[in-house]
Description:
single chain, 470 residues, alpha/beta, Rossmann fold, Helicase, Ruva Protein, domain 3, 3 domains, 5-stranded parallel beta sheet
Amino acid sequence: xxxxxxxxxxxxxxxxxxxxxxxxxxxxxxxxxxxxxxxxxxxxxxxxxxxxxxxxxxxxxxxxxxxxxxxxxxxxxxxxxxxxxxxxxxxxxxxxxxxxxxxxxxxxxxxxxxxxxxxxxxxxxxxxxxxxxxxxxxxxxxxxxxxxxxxxxxxxxxxxxxxxxxxxxxxxxxxxxxxxxxxxxxxxxxxxxxxxxxxxxxxxxxxxxxxxxxxxxxxxxxxxxxxxxxxxxxxxxxxxxxxxxxxxxxxxxxxxxxxxxxxxxxxxxxxxxxxxxxxxxxxxxxxxxxxxxxxxxxxxxxxxxxxxxxxxxxxxxxxxxxxxxxxxxxxxxxxxxxxxxxxxxxxxxxxxxxxxxxxxxxxxxxxxxxxxxxxxxxxxxxxxxxxxxxxxxxxxxxxxxxxxxxxxxxxxxxxxxxxxxxxxxxxxxxxxxxxxxxxxxxxxxxxxxxxxxxxxxxxxxxxxxxxxxx
Length: 470
């Protein structure tokens, strides 16, 4: 972006002006100079594309730098200004910031200091442009773009998606809660021959058996108390399209038999009816549970498992692809800044480091929720660690001390497991304390389903009731 970034250096000292032009030109910026404010204003009026940034000296003959700053900000608010001065005082610094200067540098300044300030502006300008484009997209659709990642693990997933999308086979997507199974299902549908037809989502974990049966297959008027009219089910709505059965492992055993028949025969009967309805529906199922274990325990039908498991796609947890975390964090920053119509926000390096170091037990969903929360709670247009982690998980809690474990001379895998278990229990404890044992609210904070969090609480041996009065 540097070659398209236009900078005007305004300084009556030839040596300073030329030195800045040489330095910034070497960095690839489009730079010209002006020896006074009048020349600068003429250039601003005559330049067709305009400038992105002005470097302005305070003390100049005629109109000084502060006066020029005020005039520029009155006429063109989008132009950023960095004030330069050899006579730094608190008063001039405050005055320049009051009138809209982006930064304030004292001569002689270090070249890295100048480049860092400019780089920050470049990033913000780039982000503003992306947010502008996102806002334009939001006027057409309220759908989040599918963002997955560039890690080797996700590149492998994408290659599988490209292969299986055109093939009309049932697919089982496996992965922890919040890993993006729904996004992957949408990506498969969008690349399939069925893309012009409906993509219907059935959340099997959110509905009880009787209600789920009615939602899947539909019912006729009078089928049960409260059935005041005929209702079309998910399978019929997804005819010629794709039905996404989310959390298939939560479907009760008695309903699994009925589900098997429609998966096999592409036909079903509405509740309260005898008429057979034929459909052409592709099925994509997803689960965060181990269905093979469930089959061995008699909790999931083996025949249904094999019917759904024609092609298996396993999604890695976010902690297993940390190189994707900065990409996802910046994506959510841009998306929610545009969606919420906020000003451009800055994500400091130290906050990003904490985001990357954290294990995200709720995966992408937890990261998305945390970024949205941090955006809403941002102060001075800057995201903070406190905004990301309301349960007070500070940076030093994310980075562990391994010395005690090293003394035991245990293996890497054992150490990793020990650290993860300790961290999970500590994080859950903090979150439950913060929400006074309320599992539903804690699940929202962590970006997890309530049922998934309850299982995790049980696995760690915690009792949410103990936190009710803390």
